[in-house]
Amino acid sequence: MRMDIVTIFPDMFKSPFAESIVKRALEKGLVELNIVDLRRYTHDKHRQVDDAPYGGGPGMVMKPEPFFEAVEDLKNPSLKTVVVLLSPAGEVFNQRMARSFLAYEQIIILCGRYEGVDERVHQHLADKIVSIGDYVLTGGELPAMVLTDALIRLIPGVITADSTAEESFAEGLLEYPHYTRPASYRGMDVPAVLLSGDHKRIAAWRKEQALKRTLKYRPDLLEDNGSGVLD
Q1: Of 74, 102, 123, 215, which has the maximum CB count within 10 A?
Q2: Is the dihedral of CA 212, 216, 221, 225 positive or negative?
Q3: Which of 74, 76, 128, 134 is nearest to 101 (CA)?
Q4: pLDDT, tens digit (0-9, with 9 covering 90-100), for 110-166
Q5: Which domains occur in the chain, in start order?
Q6: Residue 154 gets which letter from DSSP?
């Protein structure tokens, strides 16, 4: 998979992608990750990517031309590609959406800034508009890191399939509780069933605990369709 992240702050991505699972995926060649400076696609001496909004109002709006030219330059016609614009106006990102992106061979991620991006980018360039939550950040760079991390770890070979099969949201529920050594710590004991060696009982306990945890912390996941499966 190839991922192109278009931003005016490319240096923000150096440290997060130089560590841990993402770093190993890059070293194994399981993903190609390109951080692209949007200012490469400007044509004035000031490399301007924003301008005042028509109709007045506070702040500046990012211009359409650099985004369109960046996508035209980066898009590989031989690959199945999706263009993603990160915006508070977008569909809220979740695990199901992350998995859906695995269907693409190239993902171009556009990071907005300031008061937002010219609406023509929303309407005529982006295939999908994505938000990571109902709050506003200073730009799309942090959401791009979140989306990239969530997606890369799902690519076959990056981590073991078992690790992603039973984690939170994999089946529409939060993940069951985990325990490790010591079996008893300051009067807090690991549930006896986990020490029993009875795999059938352990599986039933984990399923029950996942449901209880979801009901307590995220009942909305069950309310989506009444079955505990995300839409």
Answers
A1: 74
A2: positive
A3: 128
A4: 999 988 999 999 999 999 999 999 999 999 999 999 999 999 999 999 997 766 656
A5: 2-152 (3.40.1280.10), 166-223 (1.10.1270.20)
A6: T
How many Cβ atoms from other residues are within 10 Å of residue 109's Cβ? Answer: 25
Give bridge partners of residue 219 from the DSSP assignment: none
105: DSSP letter:
S
141-152 helix and 20-28 helix, angle to the nearest 10 degrees: 60
SS3 107: strand
- 56 class by beta-carbon count within 10 Å (0-12 exposed, 13-18 middle, 19+ buried): exposed
Cα–Cα distance, 195 to 122 (Å, whole number): 54
Checking if the pLDDT of 229 tops 50, the result is no
Kind and range of the H or E run holding 110: strand 106-111
Beta pairing partners, 113: 139
pTM, full prediction: 0.86
- Per the CB < 8 A criterion, the answer to whether 116 and 87 are in contact is yes
**Burial of 87 (C-beta count, 10 Å sphere; 0-12/13-18/19+):** buried
